[in-house]
């Protein structure tokens, strides 16, 4: 049976070969066209296969990119944890602010980044009973870094200046903040808090505009509970005690 099938196959191949040879002799032009068309079809098939493989790779890459973007979006939706305002983990400020004046706390504000400083100020506002506390600092914030609602319902707008000890807040800083805190942000209480100090012209402008200024020492007093909250202080400057 095998030899019969082999003989039939060889006969068919021989017949096809004679047919092709006869066609070449009679119409060589048509044979050339058929050969060119066959080659073109083969090239087109290879291109289609290449495009299909490229499309599969692109789809895989897009799928991976979409998964990564979804993971990053989920991470961004997780609220950031605000840094603790006390350096001593064993010390907590009670809600009534009944703090031993001799137990001062160094919050370590100098070691924070400007963004972390804003988060720390927001944490102080929350600790002292504010609601709807939000950190809004960044590009286009128009001077507002932290906004909140005080326990008695007033809207407080805070600008944070994380300055070095030798870099005091000047009158231009106060003027820029004063131009937006009330008219743009609708503040009932406007506060500018810094890790440094204020120049005399800056304090004079704050008194005129009703802006509460909190310098580095007053910030430490607010932090450890020995000083008032900014929204309970007189505009311009605080008095100790």
Automatic annotation (TrEMBL):
Keywords of the record, alphabetical order, are: Endonuclease, Hydrolase, Membrane, Nuclease, Transmembrane, Transmembrane helix
Give the Gene Ontology MF terms in alphabetical order: endonuclease activity
Query: What Pfam families has UniProt attached to this entry?
Result: Mrr_cat
InterPro entries with a match to the protein in the record = Restrct_endonuc-II-like, Restrct_endonuc_IV_Mrr, tRNA_endonuc-like_dom_sf, Type_IV_Methyl-Rstrct_Enzyme
Ranges of compositional bias, category Basic and acidic residues: 94-103
Which residues are listed as membrane-spanning? 29-47
- Region Disordered, as annotated, extends over 86-110
- Name the domain of life this protein comes from: Bacteria
Q: Which residues form the Restriction endonuclease type IV Mrr domain?
A: 110-222
Q: Which PANTHER family match?
A: MRR RESTRICTION SYSTEM PROTEIN (PTHR30015), SLL1429 PROTEIN (PTHR30015:SF6)
Name of the featured protein? Restriction endonuclease
**Which organism's genome codes for this protein?**
Streptomyces heilongjiangensis
């Amino acid at each position: 049976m095998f030899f019969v099938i082999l003989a039939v196959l060889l006969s068919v191949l021989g017949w096809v070969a004679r047919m092709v040879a006869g066609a070449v002799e009679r119409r060589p032009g048509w044979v050339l066209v058929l050969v060119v068309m066959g080659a073109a079809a083969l090239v087109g098939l290879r291109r289609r296969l290449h495009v299909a493989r490229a499309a599969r790779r692109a789809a895989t890459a897009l799928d991976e990119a979409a998964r990564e973007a979804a993971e990053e979006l989920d991470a961004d939706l997780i609220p950031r944890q605000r840094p603790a305002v006390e350096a001593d983990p064993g010390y907590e400020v009670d809600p009534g602010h009944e703090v031993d004046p001799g137990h001062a706390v160094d919050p370590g504000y100098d070691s924070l980044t400007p963004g972390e400083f804003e988060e720390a100020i927001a944490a102080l506002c929350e600790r002292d009973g504010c609601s709807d506390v939000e950190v809004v600092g960044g590009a286009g914030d128009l001077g507002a870094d932290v906004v909140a609602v005080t326990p008695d319902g007033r809207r407080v707008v805070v600008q944070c200046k994380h300055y070095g000890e030798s870099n005091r807040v000047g009158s231009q800083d106060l003027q820029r903040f004063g131009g937006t805190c009330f008219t743009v942000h609708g503040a009932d209480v406007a506060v500018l808090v810094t890790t440094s100090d204020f120049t005399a012209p800056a304090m004079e402008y704050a008194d005129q505009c009703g802006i509460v200024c909190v310098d580095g020492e007053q910030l430490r007093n607010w932090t450890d509970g020995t000083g008032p909250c900014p929204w309970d202080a007189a505009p311009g400057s605080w008095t100790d005690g």
